[in-house]
Amino acid sequence: MIIRSIPPVPPPHQYYQQQVLQQQQQQMTGSGPNLQQRLRAQANGYVVPQRQPNVPVQPISNSLMTQLQHQKLRQQREAGLTGARPMNSQMNRNPIRRLSQRRQQQRMQPKEKELENEPSVLTSWWAWVAYLVTCCIPGWCLKSCCRKRTMIMQQAWREKITLVFCILLLCGVLIYITYGLNMTLCPQSVKNFAYSGSEGGARGPIYRSNVRVLGRVYELDRMKAFFATKGVNLTNDYENMDLSPIFDGDTEGKCSPFGNRPGLGTCTLYSQYGGWMTPERGCLKLADLQAYMEPIGTLGFEWIDLSATYTHSSLAILGNTVINITNYQRNGTKIFGDYVDTVLQSAAGTDLSYSLLFEPSGLSARDCLIARYSVGVMESETGGCIAAQIIMNLMLAVICVMIVIRYSMALTFLWFIAGRLVKPGGRSNWLAWRSISGGNNDPANHIPGPYAYYRPNNVISSSSGSSASLASSRRSEHAELAATHTNSTSTGIVKTELYTIMMVTCYSEGQEGLQTTMDSLARTTYSKKHKCFFVVCDGMITGAGETRSTPDIVVSMLKLDPTMREPKPSSYVAIADGEKQLNMAKVYAGHYKRVPCIVVVKCGTEEEANKPKAGNRGKRDSQLIVMQFFQRVLFNDRLSALDYEIFWKMTWLMKGVTPDKFELVLMIDADTKVASDSLTYMVAAMANDITIMGLCGETRIANKLSSWVSAIQVFEYYISHNYAKAFESLFGIVTCLPGCFSMYRIKAPKNGAWVPILANPDIILEYNQNIVTTLHAKNLLLLGEDRFLSTLMLRTFPRRQMMYVPQARCKTIVPDRFRVLLSQRRRWINSTVHNLMELVLVSDLCGIACLSMQFSVFVDLVGTLVLPAAICLTVYLIVNTAISSNPQWQSLALLIAILGLPAVLISITTFKYVYILWMLVYLVALPIWNFVLPVYSYWHFDDFSWGATRVVVGEKKDKGHLDGEGKFDPSRLVMKKWEDWESERVGHSILSRSRPALLTPTPQSPPPAAPTRMSNPIFVNRQMYSTPLKS
User: Fold this and answer.
1) How many CB atoms lie within 10 A of CB 984?
2) What is the Cα–Cα distance from 998 to 979, expressed in whole angstroms?
3) CB burial readout 162-171, b (16+ within 10 A) else e
4) CB under 8 Å to 144, separation ≥6 — which residues?
5) Integer CA distances (angstroms), 90 to 87, 93, 95, 98, 236, in order
6) What is d(CA 880, CA 878) in angstroms, rounded to the nearest whole number?
7) Are 685 and 701 in contact (CB under 8 A)?
8) Burial class of residue 647 (count of CB atoms within 10 Å of its CB; 0-12, 13-18, 19+)
9) CA 449 to chain centroid
10) CA distance 69 to 244
11) What global pTM score does this model have?
12) Nearest 5 degrees, angle CA 813-CA 815-CA 816?
């Protein structure tokens, strides 16, 4: 009998700990990172994702799964795992052939990877158009000469050239309509000299030193030279005379059917001083004169000249030509027949055209009469000239009407609507044609969300009196928080105070700018119980001239809880490509000037810890951290590690108010100073009208006198708000909410429930594009994310409103060097053009036909593209007016109206006449605004860098948003439900009876978890919070 020793069975909790250790060891040595890498990561303070034994990892959301599946397929194509077939086993048996095949595969592998990594760029009709326009420039030329290495860069260059061609075409059309159309319809190749004029109240012939031949005017000195070639001496006695009697004007033989040189006369010219002359060789030929020199003009007659006594001649009209039939009437010979003779004898001062039109003898005599007796032309406008004049007058009227309407609508908003936006009750009567007021005052709109029932103190307890204590705790907390809501101090402007996030995005700002911004926000008159800072530091960045990084500066300004000073990095999916798609961030929780403050520092993964700009993913990524967080909270979706860190720390700071209660988010930049009452006014406008989904205030310049560069921007900032945004606000559609100072609605009340606005999945899905290949998409997402966010809001909710609140003001620092201004406006102008291209296709915007916002967007788009041509035409008009004796008064009046109406707007709205001086400074710099900046921007359509706007220590040149490197590892990202994260953190399971019935599907509840060891057990006693429960 063999007796074996059986080891004792460990207690349940020891057995459970052994199972956990075994699973952790298997994970460290399995498919994930190796043990040394994980230990090194834990030593550096990073959280190594491990599968918890007590809580199963939940599957990630559908949108994220689609994105990860796309990334997985791409990685498989790069690795050659798709479409591969096994080789013939007989061939593999030959070692020499197998070695040669392996070498051939190694040589072909880089080429295949390079080809597979190049995505298809000809995916739309616009891409094909751009390729066809620039097909004469091959790819190898762009690669070697223009340094466009990849297909995406080459296609962006081709699209840029095509856009430049389109802009040049539009500018050409504008120039042609302004000046070329008049020249085409009403050509004036030969100048007309008036035959008569008024002087001293009497009308008479105008004396000129030049001479005339058959109605054409020639210079006397050159005519003398011509006569000298014919052996005739022409003196000054013949100046201002008609030399037609000495010329034979029948150059084409039109008079031959009527005899030998009929009506020519004796070819004798009599001087006005009594002399005369006759060429020895007979009459001079007009063809010789035309070959010798060109006339300087034509003699023009008015109707009054035909019957005037000062002509001393019998004048008549034939077509558009004036003929002198005095010699014919004196001759008495019927050269052209009886009918024509009868007409000519009684034709003095009349129009012969109709009389000779229907008679064969008259038609044959027309050309001969003009060749023999022509003395000038009639001063009359042709049909083309009349049409050109009508078109110009119509265009002038349309432009003037548009200007007047836009200014009138801007004044209507500033005078009658803007003040009512922030008053209790909001707009009423006809001013409330698109608004819905009082929605937030409805108690049904404040029903607690699902997280109000998920309370960390709802844990399994062995005490028999836990139910009674739990109910008592609920009643006391409900009464306390209800008193907080009802007894909250009111500012006098806002009756319904909404929970508001004050989001500050940081990049490379210094302590002075950050402190100015946060001080101004902390000192706002809005209730401190209803506002919370949310600062996002975009990477471990140190600004130029700074000794500390921006995250260190921000954290040092907070009053942190001692237990929250060293948070661990949490993972989330960032907007990037490749391995940078995974990012890590630390969440600090504290107070700034007694205002709750959450600081998210994007620190990057351990692989990029020693790289420059670690964790930097751009401003759009910072915005999406907030947007995706609220989307997942509102939809009770799975949370990332970063989301959950934000969730419970924000709830702790707000003393039990969970994030699903927040309705507004104020987005400002870290160099903006907000007025003390601005936040109150903005919240009041949101509370008064629930259809407002976004609004902005007036941004003014803090460094007006820093340099001439900042001085020329003062009036531009003023007019863009009090004219452009005021006009758009009457429609309720402000096309661009500036990123430095704007507010968005996270969710809107509707029928007792909530509608996600900024947290809408449609907006986030399109705003969250991480792989951008086209020129249009890159200009939208990489250069003008603030404007594109406004475009997405209007496109998704065209019936809701985006407004401008002039009572809310802030000051910001603008570029004071021209190089920085050039870089900033390049991004703004290019993003404006591409966003207007998106908005002009939205047909659901407010208005009808020419009185619609869609038409206004189209006008703004065309006006932005033709700015260089417009300023060139303006300069030409000013110069032409200064040197011309007959200036274009209509165009000049239009220019004065365009440039002068802003002064009128200033005078009758703000009464700050100093802005008129700033307007003069702006007008002097118009060539910079309308020519230099647009031309530079259009030529850099394919430049997606931020340029010199933000300078970072150690960064030589901003290379822009490049394609990602490496591969994204989705196994390092953990997504769980809120209750799973909570039970893991506090070590207790949430009671299932405390969970409400949600509309979103939820997986089966996990089994009760065994106790786990927490990294910070002190937090357990701090989380006794909950929101009031409805009885």
Assistant:
1) 18
2) 13
3) bbeeebeeeb
4) none
5) 9, 5, 11, 11, 114
6) 5
7) no
8) buried
9) 37
10) 92
11) 0.72
12) 105
Distance between CA atoms of 742 and 64, rounded to whole angstroms?
29
**Residue entry with tokens 């109605």:** 215
Among the listed residues 839, 868, 776, 769, the one whose alpha carbon sits nearest the alpha carbon of residue 158: 776
Using CA atoms, how far residue 116 sits from 75, 83, 772, in Å, is 10, 13, 17
Q: How far is the C-alpha of 231 from the C-alpha of 277, rounded, in Å?
A: 12
Q: What is the mean pLDDT of residues 670-686?
A: 93
**Residue 649: CB partners within 8 Å, gap ≥ 6?**
564, 587, 589, 598
Mean pLDDT, the chain, integer:
78
Report the relative pairing of strands 664-669 and 500-506 from DSSP bridges: parallel
* Contact in structure between 930 and 867 (CB atoms under 8 Å): yes
User: Nearest-CA neighbor of 628 among 529, 765, 822?
Assistant: 765
Token output for 835: 């966003």
Cα(693)–Cα(757) distance, integer angstroms: 7
720: DSSP letter: I
* Angle at alpha carbon of residue 555, lines to 554 and 557, rounded to 5°: 70
What is the reported pLDDT for 37? 45
Q: Which two tokens stand for residue 791?
A: 């475009």
Q: Do residues 912 and 805 make contact, with C-beta atoms less than 8 angstroms apart?
A: no
| Cross-strand bridge partners of residue 698 | 809
What pLDDT is attached to residue 708?
95
Tell me the C-alpha distance between 794 and 883, whole Å: 49
C-alpha–C-alpha distance, residues 542 and 334, integer Å: 103
- What would the mean pLDDT of 612-631 be, rounded to a whole number? 92
Per residue in 296-333, pLDDT (tens digit) is 888 988 888 888 888 888 899 888 899 988 888 888 78
In this structure, are residues 688 and 426 in contact, taking their beta carbons and an 8 Å threshold?
A: yes
What are the backbone dihedrals phi and psi of residue 767, each rounded to the nearest 5 degrees, phi first? Answer: -75, -15
Closest CA to 78 of 578, 769, 772: 578
Whole-angstrom CA distances from 380 to 300, 302, 384, 857 are 9, 8, 11, 42
**Residue 648: exposure state from Cβ atoms within 10 A (0-12, 13-18, ≥19):** buried
What is the band of 893 on the pLDDT scale with cuts at 50, 70, 90? confident
In the chain, the N- to C-terminal Cα span, in Å, equals 71
| Cα(717)–Cα(662) distance, integer angstroms | 31
Q: What whole-number distance in Å separates Cα of residue 339 and Cα of residue 364?
A: 12
| Single-letter amino acid, residue 421 | L
Rounded Cα distance between 128 and 150, Å, is: 17
Which residues does 19 contact at the CB level (< 8 Å), separation at least 6?
Answer: 53
The C-alpha R_g of the chain, in whole angstroms, comes to 42
Q: How far apart are CA 706 and CA 682, in angstroms?
A: 30
Tell the residue number behind the tokens 């209750």, with chain if given: 979
Please state, as a whole number, how many other Cβ atoms lie within 10 Å of the Cβ of residue 15.
12
User: Can you tell me whether residue 299 is helix, strand or coil?
Assistant: strand
Backbone dihedral angles phi then psi of residue 809, each to the nearest 5 degrees: -130, 155
Residue with tokens 């709750």: 596
- What is the three-class DSSP state of 756? strand
User: Which tokens in the block code for residue 551?
Assistant: 């995250």
- Pairing mode, strands 692-701 and 211-213: unpaired
CB 729 within 8 A of CB 662: no
Q: Which tokens hold the place of 405?
A: 């309407």
| Phi, psi of 575, deg, nearest 5 | -85, 95
Paired tokens of 937 = 């921007």
Residue among 605, 600, 579, 602 at smallest CA distance from 589:
600
Q: Scanning the structure block, which residue is given the tokens 């929605």?
A: 439
Residue 854 backbone phi and psi in degrees, to 5: -65, -40
Angle CA(819)–CA(825)–CA(830) in degrees, nearest 5?
Answer: 135
What is the CA 652 to chain-centroid distance, rounded?
40
